[in-house]
Write a structure and sequence with these properties.
- By secondary structure, this protein is an alpha+beta fold.
- The protein has a single domain, classed as Alpha-Beta Barrel (Multidrug-efflux Transporter 1 Regulator Bmrr, Chain A).
- Helix content is 21%, strand content 38%.
- Strands 1-6-8-7-3-4-2-5 form an eight-stranded antiparallel β-sheet, with helices on one face.
- The mean pLDDT is 95.
Length: 143
């Protein structure tokens, strides 16, 4: 199991498919995103989750290839501001899906999360995932 570390994230603009339900709707959202894209090679994929009006909202996301791609594909976009995240890697994530929730719970137990920002999953590749909890700047001293 990997160690927790600090990850600084630059601002991101993401195209997304919103899951209709959580957590059941996550896989269908990713399937729809895959079908919408012309190709998935060389792309950066993120999962984004946040409590909104007492409900968890999940978005299957991808960084657009250019500023017009979302219009061509009929997708919405949103922005993730630069910030600090408590992060932990998960190897062979396909075989360890329940651990994603467990890692978020572990991060939440150790750090004050910024509820105004999205919790993120960054899919480095088909094997490795970085799980990221947005934290307040004062939490940096814990690293």
């Amino acid at each position: 199991m990997s160690e927790i570390y600090l990850k600084k994230l630059e601002p991101l603009t993401l195209m997304y498919i919103k899951a209709e339900t959580f957590p059941e709707g996550i896989t269908p959202a990713w399937d729809k995103l895959d079908k919408t894209l012309k190709s998935i090679g060389g792309r950066e994929f993120y999962g984004a989750a946040k409590m909104i009006d007492g409900k968890m909202e999940y978005r299957a996301c991808v960084v657009p290839l250019d500023e017009n791609e979302h219009k061509q594909l009929g997708m919405d976009t949103f922005s993730i501001p630069a910030g600090n995240y408590a992060a932990k890697n998960l190897i062979d994530w396909h075989s360890h899906i329940p651990e994603i929730r467990e890692i978020f719970m572990e991060l939440n137990s150790k750090f004050a999360a910024n509820p105004g920002l999205y919790n993120l999953e960054y899919y480095l590749n088909n094997k490795e995932l970085i799980i990221m909890l947005p934290i307040f700047d004062k939490e940096i001293e814990k690293f």
